[in-house]
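Researcher: We're teaching a course module on how sequence relates to structure. For the next exercise, students receive a sequence and then see the predicted structure as tokens, so they can try to spot secondary structure elements on their own. Here is the exercise chain.
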Amino acid sequence: MDGDRAHPNPNASRRFPVEVFENIIDMLYSVFLTDRVEDTRALHSCALVCRAWRVRSQRNLFYSVVLHDVAAIEKLSTVLANAPHLCEYVHEVTLIGRTLHTTASPLSLLPIALHGKLPKLQDLHINRVQEDEDWYPRMSELESAKSLQYLPLHPRFSLFFSAFTTISRLFIYNTTFRYFNDFARMVNSLPALEILICDGVRCVTLGPLPFNMKPRADGIHAPAPPFAPNLRFLALYDVDIHCVQRLVSACGPRLTGLTVLMPFFYDAEMVLPGDLTMERTVGVDLSLCSTLEQLGISLGPEFATDGQSLDRFKAMLGSLGSEVPLRYVRLFANHEDVLTRQGFADILGTVGRVMEDLLHESSAQPSADGEVGEQCRRWRIWFYVWDWEIWLDWWWTYFERCFPTLAKSGELRMTYQPPSHDQRKWKDSGAPRPKPTTAT
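Model: And here is the predicted structure for the students to work with:
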């Protein structure tokens, strides 16, 4: 492929158009981190094959960068300094490894070492791998260092972090902050942030409510700027309910999409302030979410057994005002590998009864012009299921039986995809498909 070198057969280098090779190189991208490590190694090799492959390989190699430790950040900083044209290629950065909670945490160095070198950065993933997790390979000897209780962030970290003015999507996994305020300042420092997804984010101490999260300032101080003013979509999994409440209350008036895990998670180890009288502690209040269009609910196996989730679920949906233009309620399982198909179908049946009751209650109440039943039209249920195609009819049959009113009005939707990884496979994945029963 290299036009600089003579080849014994001049037609050998023209067997395939270069676009064919570029399309194959483009396939070296995966949403799964373990596969992305192998893709990175393959792209390194492709970039060294010939000049015709180099540009496309570098674009893919630097489009999504995976950093494991401080040394990886320093190396990337040096590469970008020596080849400034590569700065334009970087759109995603994933910071992953076992050193995030150590004194050698790469997160503190990230905004300093890469300041001004990532003008097109859009996505930032922060993922802590714990010591006992063997799904991710070990990358350096630093990973054997003793882990701290929380992220060791510099007091001025948020100021440095605010230099990333193009980040619109932030993903944080399995990470602990010392105070909720540290987490809130980090989120609020990104001026262009539109999407925030948190899974397993903890705080050692809840602390007082940050000033810019309060509903209104006191009479002495001027009102604070709104928290994360551009945030439109928020997804919170395994995040303590107090943190969920704070985020939803602060961002509610601007949210168009919200996803929460039920049952709500209560972090027994988090230190709570002495006075929580000003904050709700039982559920999520959606009354401030005046622009909400999609509400996602991830259902865990304890939803129907903990004795309180049904009431909190009903209260959360009931807190939506009749003027809220809600279009979709998305329902899906939280970790199919701990649920059987029939077990989750039973949970859907319980959810369906609650939502059907709410629909009947709202339809019985007259609207401002005296009409009855208009509020029923604001809910559409969208069910997401990961399973093999042979189970499609089985799932749809149960889905319709769980929501008979909405099924008659054609307000049910279902997205059906095969399992993408082991956690998407049901606990009884190998079981034969039974015939649906007549009862929900």
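Model: If you want an answer key for the exercise: Residues 12-363+375-424 form one domain. The chain is about 30% helix and 15% strand.
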